[in-house]
Amino acid sequence: MAHGSPMRVYYAGLALPLEEFLRRKYEALERAGVEVIIARDFFEPLPLPRPDVVHFEWNGGAIDFLERDDLWELPTIVSCRGTQIRVRPHVSAGYADQVRETFRRATLVHCVCETVREEACALGLDPEKSAVIFPAVDVEEFRPPARLERTPPLKLLAVGALIWIKGYEVMLQTLRLLLDRGIDCRLEIIGAGSERSRILFTIEDLGLANAVTLRGRVPPSMVRDAMARSDILLHASLSEGISNAVLEAMASGLPVVTTDSGGMREAVSDGNDGLVVAVRDARAGADAVARLAHEPELAARLAGNARRTVESRFRLDAQVERWRRVYQDVAARPRVKGAT
Fold first, then answer.
1. Does residue 234 contact residue 209 with C-beta atoms inside 8 Å?
2. CA pseudo-torsion sign 17, 19, 24, 27
3. Do residues 161 and 290 both lie within one domain?
4. 63 vs 40: CA distance, rounded Å
5. How far is Cα of residue 126 from the mean position of the Cα atoms in its chain?
6. Is there a contact between 251 and 142 (Cβ–Cβ < 8 Å)?
7. Same domain for 87 and 174?
8. 194, 277: one domain
9. Average pLDDT score over the chain
10. Which member of 43, 119, 198, 216 has the lowest number of beta carbons within 10 Å of its beta carbon?
């Protein structure tokens, strides 16, 4: 990096279109003076002048680019976000060895929470090579709305890809239990994915056709609108780093019920800024939702505390400043001979 020139970071191994949290991060980095360069495919040559840092936002992306020696010769960061550390090594043959190779080659390995760092270290990551930077939320974009008086039914919201890891079948069982207890509620699900058919079958199987709306993938503005009109966010993941949707709901002043998966307890303190229940426990989820439905003062207190938690620990501007400093530090490190 020439003196006075902006830091140039090359992001490789990304799926397009970009996930929304990455789009927000990159826009904020550019406002902070970092030049963001996105690789469109495997064979795209490095731009000139060469980037200061190469960043793989996903373990799988780093694996896909293991044969691009020209990238690994530069200062390199690999991010660990949850599923690709907590699930893939147990279900994909040879994957753990490939992850270990990316750890060996990387200048720094970023983990989204302490839980993911611990699991990455169990896979072979040198803890001295790691750094934890939490996910983040733009607290100006996600804000508590002017709350109107709530009217029945209780409006539940879930946001996330329609994949088995997100635990939607358990969530639907929770909804069935709530309705059987006489709690008038509806569930809106925002997201798309490979499990849509399975979820539709479960909705029919449990007799929930009139209680669930599947929105599919929607623009960010519709996510914000859904959070503004909802009463509770449900998050039933079986595996997680820290959920961006949960942080966005917390910033929006929406009470959260989340499973104790991955690093979620690093973001949500049970009884303080949300309710945390056991993984795969539909009854515990129903108990938590019913508690919030019957105790509006508790729901309001959790929502207020959640907003303060995000403002103090998960702000996008603070995350971007941390990333800017990490990029500068990594770019200045000498490459270890034999790293590739």
1. no
2. negative
3. yes
4. 16
5. 24
6. yes
7. no
8. yes
9. 94
10. 43
